[in-house]
Amino acid sequence: MKKHILLNLVFIFIFHCFSYGQGTAYSGPYTDSSPIVLDGISNKTISKLKITNSSGHCIKLSNCSNITIQSCKLGPSKGEGVFLSNCTNITVTNCSMESVESGVVADIGSGIKVIYNDVKNVQGPMPRGQMVQFGNVTGSGNSISYNVAENINGQSFPEDAISLFMSKGTAADPIQVIGNWIRGGGPSTSGGGIMTGDEGGSYVLVQDNILVNPGQYGITISSGDHITIKNNKIYSDKEPFSNIGLSAYRQYEILTTANTIMNNEVNFTNKDGVLNCLWNAGNCGDIAGWETNMHNANLKANILPTKIIGRAQGSVTETDIVPAESTVKIYPNPASDHLTIETSLDVKNGIVEIYNINGQKMSEQVISENNTGVNTGNLPSAVYIFKILSNNKTIDVRKITIVRN
Questions:
Q1: Residues 231-246: pLDDT tens digits?
Q2: How far, in Å, CA of 337 to CA of 335, rounded?
Q3: I need a surface site. Which of 72, 119, 199, 284 has the fewest CB within 10 A?
Q4: Domain 326-402 CATH class label
């Protein structure tokens, strides 16, 4: 009985620390740092730094690989919070960015993950002004998920909150744009929420995002193929710049086919005070699932909490953020059907235990030195706790998101 009570208390603590949703859970401490510029560097963690830059980017990486930027506070800056050029396997997570030109811009790359970050009041202007922009990001392992963007009128100049420009995932692993919260747009009359297929693109999944007053539009396909937009919620009041909630409109002479837009809920009022929720321009080929999208008059601005920036901060402790010297790496995150646990020689008799958010053990597997593959194909889409043990002692606890396509 006592053992059972103790176990429950352990899980209450773990899930209190890990069961936050969108945005960063880290709120300091930070160490002041000058701007960081790296070229050709691999296998490095940038952690818990506070960086401003009145003349450029806070962090700029060129030709780098296997870099994690975590738990940093970035901005104000003249340039981006994080600018990536020709980089692979870069993760930006648990960071706060404010008054930056854009939050994260990745120009040519693969394996780019921007997850669980807060981005407030991007300054733009066009062509910048994004929470995240992928330009020519291709291949597998790319994700813009569980971030929070808030732009306050008069304090910001956003364009597209999330922009996918000439970016292509794979059939097995599309670019994931999942579970983001976006509030605020304008005064730009061209920018909006989530732009897909900008001058082409393919194999993109846009799912379970919530957008409130995102600007001129909510979510759109402007060209490209194998783009799926589903289960999103989009709301807008009448704004001087608001136009259309959800649309498919080919803007470029690029093959646009095999796309899906389904099960989205929209309540969007344009600048003339007219309800303008859905628009299929008819030039994108057959849109699978189009008839399942709906106007939901019950959607209001309160589909997002009053406080979204900083909402999750303080819900984890310093020790919950994985240090650079950790003996365990788990990737990708979010994952789908499988992931890899990478361990060092220090892990003996290793075991991974997987629990759901209610503390129920879902599975257990022996892990060995170096790399162990874990099949997660039987886990529904949700957040799980991965508990890593060595010689029956817990050495690491991670929150891993499983996403079903």
A1: 999 999 999 999 999 9
A2: 7
A3: 199
A4: mainly beta
